[in-house]
What we know:
Helix 4 (97-124) packs parallel to helix 5 (145-164). A seven-stranded parallel sheet has the order 3-2-1-4-5-6-7, with helices on both faces. By secondary structure, the chain is α/β, with parallel strands linked by helices. It has one domain: NAD(P)-binding Rossmann-like Domain (Rossmann fold). It has eight helices and seven strands; from the N terminus they run βαβαβαβαβαβαααβ. The model has no long low-confidence stretch (mean pLDDT 97). Helix 5 (145-164) links the parallel strand 5 (128-132) and strand 6 (171-177). The site of 2-hydroxyethylsulfonic acid has 5 residues, from loops. This is SDR family NAD(P)-dependent oxidoreductase. Belongs to the short-chain dehydrogenases/reductases (SDR) family. Keywords: Oxidoreductase. It holds the Pfam family adh_short.
Amino acid sequence: MTKTALITGATAGIGAAAARLFAGRGWKVVGTGRRGDRLRAMQEELGAAFLPLELDMRDVNTLRQLDGLAGDWGGLDLLVNNAGLAPPADPLHEQDWDRLDQVIETNITGLVALTQALLRKLIERQGGIINLSSVAATYPYRGGAVYGGTKAFVRQFSLDLRCDLAGTGVRVSSIEPGMAETEFTLVRTGGDQAASEALYSGMDPMTPEDLAETIWWIATLPSHLNINTLELMPTRQSFAGFSVTRK
Ligand code: NDP
Ligand code: 8X3
């Protein structure tokens, strides 16, 4: 039977690469995002393997009705909770509340609502859930309080969800990547292309395709194996020390 994945945030970056990879390897893909033009372009590119679903992750009422996905696309083998974003990397007291709220609603509330809505379908097929957390869940940095906090939530949610799903055969994984060159920094900086290019310049960042292959690897492991958490970085990214403020 053809397998079906629902991939959120399939209009750019990691989600778009994963949609292409899964569709190219014989899966059906339900791809979501707010930008309908990009979803339609993806459908033209991938054909019948791709079902576009225009969806704002902040629209909890709609998310909660998605257990009603019917027909050929009704069964679900994999949920990739990928849609997400970061606010500018400024200290919290300098941040705009609306941006913070958008990040919390998208990265946490929407992810939980969608997961809850689709769980029964995933249990029916003994499917899998792969959540996009981040190295920001583990390693604090200035300006990362809300983003890192949301990604720490995603990791812990993934681990706790495994407890709820014990015995169902459903697998849950948290992927925690470092720097991957996508539209992530463009969004974070409010469209500053130069800042985005400068961040990834000369450091061989991970590519969206690297992460898509990682998602594929986790999803297609033998069913008796569960990757709980997986942290990965570009070789040129590493750790910094503690910060000390002297008097
Ligand atoms: P991109 O900005 O390239 O893609 C983000 C995707 O999320 C887009 O498809 C966007 O679709 C979707 N999205 C954002 N907000 C919403 C919303 N409110 N409703 C629906 N969809 C939404 O970033 P990445 O591909 O890099 O990010 C994917 C995930 O990976 C995120 O969760 C991010 O936090 C995580 N991550 C990224 C890293 C990186 O270095 N790039 C590292 C670690 C984790 P649209 O705008 O069309 O709605
Ligand atoms: C994105 C990676 O290091 O910019 O999650 O927070 S980082």
